[in-house]
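Need the bound structure for NDP, inputs here:
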Amino acid sequence: MTAQIIDGRALARTVRREVEQRVVALAADGVVPGLAVVLAGDDPASQVYVRNKAKMAARVGIDARTIRLPAEVSAGDLLGVVERLNADDTVHGILVQLPLPAGISAAEASTILRAIDPAKDVDGLHPASLGQLVAGEAGFVACTPSGCMRMLRAHGVPLEGRRAVVIGRSTIVGKPMALLLLAANATVTVCHSRTVDLAARVREADVVIAAVGRPRLVRGDWVKPGAAVIDVGINRGDDGKLVGDVHFDEVSQVAGHLSPVPGGVGPMTIAYLLHNVSLAAARRLGGA
Ligand code: NDP
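Answer from helper R.:
Posting the output first, comments after.
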């Protein structure tokens, strides 16, 4: 079998068109959705991500601003920035780009993320948003898992009653992903670094989500023929090229659907960030 490739770039264009339509509707009410991205330090990957987010936001009519702070910024100053953005009515979404500089402890980072007004939590990482996801209430859902679900839905991949394996249990991808699959009535297994015989777990799955950060971890003989495989991983290969967590050449011979890296989940993550910003603006207006 040769897998059907899930084109994340094309699907992201569709999502951005939907966002554009909402932005136009908001404009009729005099509202321009605003996104504030807080970028502390000079991590090169973060610089690229933030630039891309701002560029894509501008394309759909979202007013995006980046607040750049030095790597030496204190937790107190960062908190002050978040509080100012919470109080700013022109800002509908706040995103604090991770990772924060090394000088900010994990506990301080957590305090900073918690300080974001949940109504502006377009990254879906505030405990209130995560709690809403667990409770099945409408909140903001983390962008990467939302993008993965859209990819599965767009290709008509059945989820109800199917076995799904999520590799990775981070708060940003693995855990919300598992909850979304569960909400879609899949039978979900979450694997991680302590999982015994990962290959055997993956082989049982009709749907595999790889969110690990290990280049080409998932091999062709791990995958059940016809399974849908979504590759979230972004790794830099020895040759400097981007590779996913899935061995594309092998798995594409076995899977029914497969998302590539690059051109898969990455563009969908940004598209769902824009979706969440427009949703935040519509909710403030009382329209969503
Ligand atoms: P984390 O490092 O936070 O989590 C990685 C997870 O993988 C952990 O749960 C870890 O287990 C598990 N893991 C690590 N090694 C193994 C292994 N050998 N076998 C099984 N499980 C393992 O990463 P993120 O969730 O933030 O990101 C995962 C990947 O997705 C990265 O490559 C990242 O760059 C990419 N990413 C891509 C995005 C996109 O838009 N395309 C967005 C966000 C992330 P344990 O918990 O036990 O340590």
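Comments: The pocket of NDP is lined by residues 144, 167-170, 172-174, 191-195, 198, 211-214, 232-235, 265-266, 269 (CB under 6 Å). The radius of gyration is 19 Å.
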